[in-house]
Amino acid sequence: MGRDIPALCLKAANPVRIGFPWGATKMGVNSVLIRRSASDSRYEELVAHAVKSLLAARVFSKPYPHISFDKFWPEDFYRELLAKKPEPTNYVQLNRENTRRQFTMFDGSCDAGDDERRRLWKLVSDVLASAEIEAALRQILDEGFRLREKGSHEGWPVKMYPRPVAYLDFDGYAIKPHPDTRRKVLTMLVYMPEDDSQVDLGTTLYKISPLGVFHWKTYGLVEEKTMPFLPNSGAAFVVIHPRYNLLRSSWHGRAAIKTDPEKPRFSLLNAYYAQPVTEAAY
Ligand SMILES: [Fe+2]
Predict the structure, then answer these.
(1) Cα of 13 to ligand 1 centre, how many Å?
(2) Distance between Cα 54 and ligand 1 center (Å)
(3) pLDDT tens, residue by residue, 81-92
(4) Residue 130 to residue 113: CA distance in whole angstroms
(5) What is the CATH number of the domain that holds 156?
(6) How remote is the CA of residue 114 from the centroid of ligand 1, in Å?
(7) How many domains does the chain have?
(8) pTM of the full structure
C-alpha cells in the first residue's frame, strides 16, 4: 500500500535513519534506540496469535498471490488498541490533499502520546517486526515470493525488512491502481475499524483485462475484488512489479472513500522493504 514517498532523512543518535514523509515539517518523534518489547508479558502471546491468524489465512493465486486473514490480534488487545490509538497530533501528512496521515512505528519512537500509549504501540511495532511473522508470511505467500524472484533475480530467499506504520485515511482518500515500488517486497495490511460499518472501504485488487485495449482509461485493468474492511482482519501480498511478471503484477488501489470526518479509516501497514531502514532513505 501507500506510495513512493519523497522524504527528508535525519540521522538519529544511533545508526537508525528516520524518514519524514512529504509535508511533515514538524517532527513529533524522538530519536530512540530500537528495542524489543520481548520482556512485555504479552509479546510472545501476541506473536503466536498473529502467526496462527496468518497461517489460517485464505490463500488466493489469482490475479496474483495474496491472502486474507481474520482475528489478527486477540480480541481484548484489539479493543485496547482502538481505545488507545495514537494521538491525532502525532501523525504526519502523507499527501497534498491531506487525506492520508501516517503514524510512524518502524523508527522505534512509536510516540503515540503518553507513556502507556507509547509502550503499547512499541509493542505493536515489535510484534509486527517479529521474525515469526516474517516466517509465516514467507510460508503462506511462497508462490508470490517465487514469482517475484523469478523475475527479479534478487536471490533466494528474497531479503526483506519490516517497516510498520499506521494510517488514518479521511473522506476522499484515493489511490490509483499501482503495483507498489520494487523497493517494497511485501505489503501486509491490518484493518482496524470499530465495527462493520466501513466494510466497503477495503483495498481493491485489479487484474489485467482480457479486453485491455478497450480499458485504456484504467491502464487495461479491471477490478478483481475489494477486500472487506472488517475489524481485526487483513490482507497481504508479495510485490510483483510488471517488470517481473506482466500478467501477475500486484495491481491494487482504492477509489475515493466516503467516510465521516470523525471516523477516518484506521489501518496498520506492515510493509517489508528490500533494504533495511539503516541503509534506505525511503
Ligand atoms: Fe500500494
Answers:
(1) 31
(2) 20
(3) 999 999 988 999
(4) 23
(5) 2.60.120.620
(6) 31
(7) 1
(8) 0.84
